[in-house]
Amino acid sequence: MKVLITGGGGFIGHRLARELLERGTLAGPDGAPAAISAIKLLDRAFPPAPDARLTCVPGDLSAPGLIDAALDRDTAAVFHLAAVVSAGAEADFDLGYRVNLDGTRLLLEACRGLQRPPRLVFASSVAAFGGDLPAVLDDATTPNPQTSYGAQKVIGEYLVSDYTRKGYVDGRSLRLPTIVVRPGRPNLAASSFASSIFREPLNGVVCECPVPESTGIWLLSPRRVVDALIHAHDLPAAAWGVNRVLNLPGITVTVAEGVAALRRIAGEAAAARVRFAPDERINRIVQGWPVRFRTPRATALGFAADPDIDAVIRAYVADEGLQVS
Amino acid sequence: MKVLITGGGGFIGHRLARELLERGTLAGPDGAPAAISAIKLLDRAFPPAPDARLTCVPGDLSAPGLIDAALDRDTAAVFHLAAVVSAGAEADFDLGYRVNLDGTRLLLEACRGLQRPPRLVFASSVAAFGGDLPAVLDDATTPNPQTSYGAQKVIGEYLVSDYTRKGYVDGRSLRLPTIVVRPGRPNLAASSFASSIFREPLNGVVCECPVPESTGIWLLSPRRVVDALIHAHDLPAAAWGVNRVLNLPGITVTVAEGVAALRRIAGEAAAARVRFAPDERINRIVQGWPVRFRTPRATALGFAADPDIDAVIRAYVADEGLQVS
Question: Which of A10, A210, B54, B227 sits between 20 and 30 A of A235, alpha carbons compared?
C-alpha cells in the first residue's frame, strides 16, 4: 500500500516514516496488515540523506498542483502533519489560514478524488482548547481556541469529520499534547521552550526559559506520538464511530519538575543551564493552554502516555546517543 | 450608521430589515444608540417592492466582488444570515462549502478591511449538534454535526471567533433553533415541515408531514429570532468575553403537541389537514437534531424564548392577517 505524510520533512513526520519502514505494514482497507510499498513525504524541506525508499515532494501544501503530485490514484493512507506552527500562524494570519485551512481542504478534496477513500490521520493539537477552561479537561470539553493555529486545527477536525461522514475519506483527528523532547533547534512554536529546557542543557548549552517554573505542560514523547499516529490509522472505522476526534493521553509536568528530572538524570550542572528570561508574548499564549486532562476514551481505544518525565528524558538521551554524567 | 444584512432577501433577513427601520437605531461603536442611515441587503433574490430605504445587492455571497459592493468603508453592523440550507448543502456538497464556508470567509476578510471593525452577528444553527447527544443539551455541549450544513455553521463560528480575537470584527454567533412559523412555501431545509404543519392547514391546504408525530422540535418564533439578532448586536463586547457563541433559548414542541395547539386555535378541520407521509431521507436528518436544551447563559444575557406554541401560532396568524375559526 502507498502512504503519504504531509509535513514528512519535519521531525515527527520523519520519525513516523522511519517507523513505518521498520514495521513494513499498516492496516489495509480490509483491516488486515498490508505491506507498505511506497511512502511519499510532502514538505518544504527535508533532512539530509532521506532513506532511498522514501520519495520527497518539495513545496508548500497550498501550492497549486503539489498535492496531486504527492498522491497516487491508489494512495491508501494519509498522515496530515503539515502546518504553520502556533506562533507562526499568530504572527502571519494570512499564511496560517492559507496553509492550515486551505491546505487541509485541498488535501481532503484530492483524497475525495482517489480510487477509494484513504484512511487519513490528522494531527490536531491541544491548542484547540482555551478561554475559560476547567482545571481538568476531558473528552467532553468544547474547544475554544485562543490562537489562530488552534482555530485552524479545530476547523480542520470538523472538515475531516464531515468528509468522513460523506465517505470521501476515513478520517481520524488526534489532539496532540506538546511533543517533548524535540531534537534540533528552537522553532517559532510558542511551545518551543518545552523541549529546549531539556535539549539545550543536555547539549551543554544554556536555555532561556520564557515562562515561570510553575508553568505546567501537557506532554507526550516523540516515540509515543508516532505510535499513536500509527495506532489511530490502524483502528477500524467502527472503533471511532461518529466521533472522529480524540484527545491523546499525556502527562502533566511543570517546568520545575522537568528541571528536577534533568538534575536526577544529567546532574546539577545540566539543571543549572536552565535560566529564566520571561517573554510576555510567549507566556501569554502558553498560559492559555490546558495543563491537565482525563482521557478515558483514548485509553479505552488503546492509546498510551509515557510513564513519567524521567522516561521521556532517558528516551531522548538514548535516541540521540548522548552521554550523561 | 450603515448596516449590511446578508440573506437580506430571505424571510428572517427581511423581517430583520423591517424591524431595524421601525426601531431606527442600533448600538453604535461606543454602545450608545446610533441612528441607522442605510441598510443594504445582499441576496440572490428579493421579495417584491422592498422598502425604498433599503438597497438591494443581488447575487451569490461567494461571487467575486459582490461583498465589496455590499459593504461601505464605514459599515458598522453586519448580520450574516445567507446560507445554503441543510438539505441543500447535503445534496450539493461543493455548493454548501462554497457559499457557507467560502462566503463567510470572504465576508470576514472584507470586514477586516473596513475603517473600523464592525459588529457582526452570525446566524448559526442547532444543526451544529449531532452524534451521541445527551437528553438535554446545554452551554457546554460540544458540537458534532451530522450534516455538512451543521459542519459549515460550526466552522463559521470558529472563524467569527478567531477574527474577533484578532480585532478584525466584533463577532457574535447565535445557534438558532428551528424558526416556526415561516410564511410562504416549503423549502429545501429538512426542517421545512416544522412550519408546514401549521402554515398549510391555516391556509386550508393539506400538509404531508415527513416525520412521526412524536418528533420533538426545538423552536423559536420569527419575532423572537429578530429580537435576538438585534439584542446580540447591541450587547457590549464585554458581555460576550472570550466566548462568542451562544445557544439561543427556545421551546420543545412535538408534532403531536403542535397539532393539538392548532386544533385549539383553528379547529378540528385545520388539525385534520396534517397527514403523515414518512420520508426517510428527511426523517434521518431530523431525528439527529437536538430537541431539549438548558440555556442559562442566553437567559443571563437577556435573550428570551416564546412562552408556548399557542403564542407562536397566534403571532403567525396576527402577522399574516389570517382569519381563524
Answer: A10
The neighbouring-strand residues paired with B4 are B40, B78
Angle among Cα B109, B111, B112 to the nearest 5 degrees reads 65
Distance to chain B for A150, nearest Cα, Å: 9
A305 conformational bin, left if phi > 0, alpha if psi -120 to 50, beta if neither: beta
Which parts of chain A sit beneath pLDDT 70?
49-50, 325
B11 assigned to some structural domain: yes
The reply to whether residue A144 touches residue B242, judged by beta carbons under 8 angstroms, is yes
**What is the average pLDDT across B138-147?**
96
| Close Cβ partners of B68 (under 8 Å, ≥ 6 residues apart) | B110
CB-CB under 8 Å, A143 with B141: no
CB of B296 within 8 Å of any CB in chain A?
no
* Assigned domain for A267 exists: no
Nearest CA in chain A to B141: A142
Does residue B88 belong to the interface with chain A, where contact is any CB pair within 8 Å? no
d(CA A66, CA A81): 15
Cα(A233)–Cα(A246) distance, rounded to whole angstroms?
Answer: 13
> Cβ contacts (< 8 Å) between A130 and chain B: which residues?
242
Structural domain total, chain A: 1
- The mean pLDDT of B105-132, rounded to a whole number, is 96
Residue numbers of B annotated as active site: 149
pLDDT at B242 over 80: yes
CATH of the domain at B234: 3.40.50.720
Window B:166-205, CB contacts with A under 8 Å = 166
By the 8 A CB rule, do B268 and B276 touch? no
User: Out of A131, A140, A155, whose CB is closest to B158?
Assistant: A155
Q: Which domain holds residue B241?
A: 2-177+221-247
Does residue A293 contact residue A250 with C-beta atoms inside 8 Å?
yes
Q: Which of B93, B104, B165 to mutate to test the interface with A (most CBs of A within 10 A)?
A: B165
pLDDT digits 0-9 by tens, B155-167: 999 999 999 999 9
pLDDT of residue A325: 66
Q: Tell me, yes or no, if A161 comes closer than 8 A to chain B by beta carbon.
A: yes
- Distance from C-alpha of A108 to C-alpha of A123, rounded to nearest angstrom: 14
* Nearest chain B residue to A140, by CA: B142
Residue A86: inside a domain = yes
In this prediction, residue B325 carries a pLDDT of: 66
- Containing B119, the helix (H) or strand (E) segment is strand B119-125
Per-residue pLDDT tens digits for A86-139: 888 999 999 999 999 999 999 999 999 999 999 999 999 999 999 999 999 999
* Torsional class of B184: left (φ above 0), alpha (ψ -120 to 50), beta (otherwise): left
- pLDDT tens digits, B28-40: 989 999 999 999 9
Between residues 213 and 252 of chain A, which touch chain B (CB distance below 8 Å)?
241-243
What is the pLDDT of chain B when averaged over all its residues?
Answer: 95
Rounded to two decimals, what is the model's pTM? 0.96
